[in-house]
Amino acid sequence: MRIAILCGGGPAPGMNTVVGSIAKVFLKNGYGVIGLHLGYAGLFREDAQYEELDFHKADAIFNKGGSYLKMSRFKPSATDFERNFNLKFFTDNDIKLLVTVGGDDTASTANRVAKFLAEKGYSIANIHVPKTIDNDLPLPDNTPTFGYTTAEDAGAKIASVIYEDARTSENWFVIAVMGRSAGHLAFGLGAACHLPMIVIPEMFNKTEITIERIVNLVISAMIKRKIMGVNYGAAIISEGVFHALSDTEIRRSGIHLSYDDHGHPELGKISKAQIFNELLEKKYAETGLKIKSRPVEIGYEVRCVNPTGYDLVYCTLLGNGVYQLFRQGASGCMVYVNNAGDVSPLFLKDLENADGKIPPRLVDIESQKPQSIINNVLQYITERDYKAAREYVKYPEEYDFRKILNW
Can 134 be counted among the known catalytic residues? Predict the structure, then answer.
């Protein structure tokens, strides 16, 4: 009997740790292990690319960054299931379990695959391992998704160097950070580096996200720092604010986006930092602010770094947890490991919404942790700054942090 493992979406630190750990524990207990390349694209083709994973391969990859199993964002359509699904791959290899490693889209598709196989009379277990540096899968007790902690660590190192460059050269940097739906990574990096402004989608919980509001939040920090006699800084912005922009706002900004198979804007194809910086430069020209800023992107740089000790242990426990759940007969679930190391299933049917998708876990912007950073670390214009701010802008109330957000 064998199990099959595939990895979907984009890479995250710990991918190989999960795959290597799963392979080791199943091999130890007498199962064969097949690694399927190209994610779901590998299941919807006659010539599926796969290989046996033995102990030597598993041991060689488990502490490495990147993903030994090639990945894709392929999302099968209903027609793909009817015409292109490679059922022979499962029957010929006597596969009893499909392990999928990925984010919310990968998890939702895994559920579709398991249901389809059951309809065809081939019962197979399906267990998902939640992965994303966005940290936006709804795990209990704010447990991080694997890869997030390492990405936050690597990103904080980059952001701290950027901030030091800003201080040294007395310039501003505009940093755009990955985070399709939620601002966990951007907020984590901004908090870790004491950056004067963080902009994430969840901050707009009482007003619409617009280009003007995003720009004015950054300008608010710039003016506040000028009042303080500080002529440098860095603002960090989550790319997820793009997802919440209306079509009108996107057209007004001049941004042209393509979309992936899941209907998400392919933000990786454009420089969000460059766009934000250009929008800011327009504002400088309109207001007469004497500021220089430069764009920096943080995203792909943190996806394939070697996992930190936290993720090495966490991913090992997740891999072992897959075997434990399989032995217990669990299927159609995500593996969950709490801080004490206890393993339990999170059933996808209990997490999905009416559309069959898993809604993202957002930053709880009103909770104590983010409020502590917003109130004590960020720097921005308030009413008491208006008089001093008029030296730089005619209407300082337009840059009042709380008024911008309608807080």
Answer: yes
